[in-house]
Records
---
Amino acid sequence: MVKGSDILLILVAILFPPAAAFIITGCSCDLLINILLTVLGYIPGHIHAFWLIYKKIKAEEQYGRGGFQYVGNGTYQPVYQSGAPVNYGTTN
């Protein structure tokens, strides 16, 4: 289900696709890819930004709002598994 924040993100993607990619992925390789696609042609930048938005909406449906972490290449993984926080390479 599309939320108000997703609609705002779509509007940002229409105006400036790299800004939407930055909001979704932060400073990552996907941001660089989106900047290059936007420079090479405005439409490819839009397609990439809309694809990132689509993947984010699907992750929200699967893991719940805030229950996922972006790991790159349009993929997400859950922050929590079976009620316990997931350890991502940090030692206790």
Note: The longest strand covers residues 68-72.
---
Amino acid sequence: MPAADTNFNYRETGGAYYLSEQQRARIKQLSRSWIWRLELPTWSLIGVIYTGWFTSVIYWQQLGTVIGSVLLILLSAWYMSLQHELIHGHPTRWRRVNQLLGTLPLAVWYPYGLYRDSHIQHHKDEDLTHPEKDPECYYYTAEQWQYFPRLFKGIVRVSNTFVGRLTLGPALDIIDTIRSTIRAFIAGNRPAIIMWLIHFGLLALLFHWMAGYGISAIFYILLISYPALSLTKIRSFFEHRAAENSAARSTLNEAAWPWRLLFLNLNYHLVHHDLPTLPWYGLRQIYLENRVQYQQRSEQFVVSGYTQWFEAFAFTALEIEIHPFYGSENKVLSEQARHAVIDCAERRTESV
């Protein structure tokens, strides 16, 4: 693909950021193919995940605890990747239909609606890694960090190791979710309460049905859904970093095919943030066609695979504690003002 066109109006109203007019035309061409128009890869994925999950439960006794657990862990983690795809408008253009396809709580922990709303907020790239605005942020403001107990600071540091993220990371997320649920009920947040009641009702029905095949609710929560959530933490480990350039905040992880399939190519995370409605089966193709440009755009925030993260940070913590730019809301405003002054000066220089 040709280099980025500097005269091209990159960021569109819908949030898509194209490297060039040629890239936009290329994606439009791909979207006209019958495979993309019919969303066959995503429909196939839905069929495989649901069939595999229910079959694994029905044949639990025949599969045995070990094989059955491994299958359900993988399928539950895969289901969470599917839910992410549904949030971004696939496989149908109807939001309600996509929601129905992802509402069943196979992964237990989060209602689809809660995940959808927080993730859409996360896609405001200008707020990526902002401790007070990005719901998927691991950073804190200096004011927040100052008042944390020493024990909690230690837990955060441990959770910033690769092993710690897999073991403690899910627990921290679950605790935050429980706290937000309690706040919603106390505040009388009717939409949130309805969402949670539907989630709990479906979960109760699911646990009751699984119990008939020998899988208890406690076993499923502790030994299947928690490990499944841990698997997703592999993908999100150092997925974003603090950087003044918003494009340099999202990683490009050239992972092996099993990880790419499990995470539906979200390892090419900058491409996903630039083109959030691009289907999962197009992310790798678009990345490879523009590999050099994307790596430059990310300011070389590129890794060769998840093994690289494990080797570097298995027991060594990432420096993700106090955000280096967002000490407070006033700091954010001053940064915005500084960039506005720079942009204005550059325009004056160009006009001269």
Note: The beta strands are 252-253, 302-303.
---
Amino acid sequence: MIIYLRNLLTCGSNLRGPKGIITSPNYPVQYENNAHCVWVITAMDPEKILLPLIETVGSTMRQQKMLPNRLCFINTYTYPNPKPTLTVIKLAFEEFDLERAYDTLTVGDGGKIGDARRVLYVLTGSSVPDLIVSMSNQMWLHLQSDDTIGSQGFKAVYEEIEKGGCGDPGVPAYGKRTGDHFLHGDVLTFECQAAFELVGERTISCQQNNQWSGNKPSCVCKSHFLKCMIIINMLAFRMINVSPL
């Protein structure tokens, strides 16, 4: 069997933290057929730790008064008894549209591309995926399309977060959430505004594999459409008229 590769589009890149954006080729215009794109995301430096800025006074060290954003990376050997902060990768999709079943985006953990044992998700279709968090300081994405019919593609934001959590899954539109901690074992509970019905899991927990036990639910109109529109407009009016503290 002869395989012709001359029309195969190869793309992708090696990316580093702490934060960035990944898009499919040509986004928001349709990506090419026969695309084979690989992105590898690596945390900036897993050997470093995040500590408050310090200054030396005589032979002693004292912590400066913390100011906004006044943090610095210090190698572990420069601070007595340091506590290392291991980092993992959080991937949040803003847009997603691949030809269902024929074009796929595989998301895996670690730096070994294509290892079936490290695959986290195989994504396709037009539903925006929920938050994905790696187990290690590396994550890889592999976009593969066939030779017909492309779609808009995807846009995602990656960010380094501290290991031991699942990341903030957000709050559903026209809903609210109880719980503001996202570490292993933490539980979040969701509910919807009046006239809206919860679709999905009401309660999810952060598991040891850094994934939530369920996807973030959504709130859909369960009453007369006009009643829902009135509530939506009221919520929007409140947001516009909220004055800063």
Note: The longest strand covers residues 87-97.
---
Amino acid sequence: MAVADVKPPPAAPVVERQTGASMMEQLVPEITTHALSYLDYSSLCRLSMTNSLMRKAANDDNAWKALYHKDFTLEQDTMTPVNGWKAYYAATRAIMNVNAQFFNIIRERSLPAMSLFWLNADYVKCIHATGEHFSGHTAVIQGWELAFNMEQGVDFQVRDVRARVLTDMAWVTMKADVNIDDEPFYMTNVFEFHNGRWYMVHHHSSVMLGDGDMVE
């Protein structure tokens, strides 16, 4: 047989690959979204800065919805955020941090910090668990001054925190315990957004007795 008559073996099939693409980037969108649901807030933000494909995946609304349900308690089950779940997650995270700052101010009994924390307006109101009611910025801060002078430092253990955030208003409901043996405080904090930051405009604290009666 002549050498020219010998046929070369068939070439191996060519597998198409995306040049430079990672295995994560080659997954179908549904699997990618499911995988991203296991990431925390910081990891999801870092992932969005790697490249355009991962930025698109990390900005997917379903991924942020899953993260919201993992990190926060939803105040309204049927809610659909106007600006998407990523924006709503960021807004909820911000108001949760502000709400935590309120309790840090109480623990430190810092009257200057409390004064700056409240919106300087006549319509702000504060109702303490003792039943004392204060209206207007000056009276509200005087009420906190009385509380700080009369009480020892209080370390609230906050639980069952739920937040609802609108464009320029938010409210947070929660239970707060001082001692395990005492009845919990039921609290509502209302905030308004002014000049780039959140201010408290209303605080209501009540003690729920064992028989279900509420003391204001």
Note: The chain has a mean pLDDT of 81.
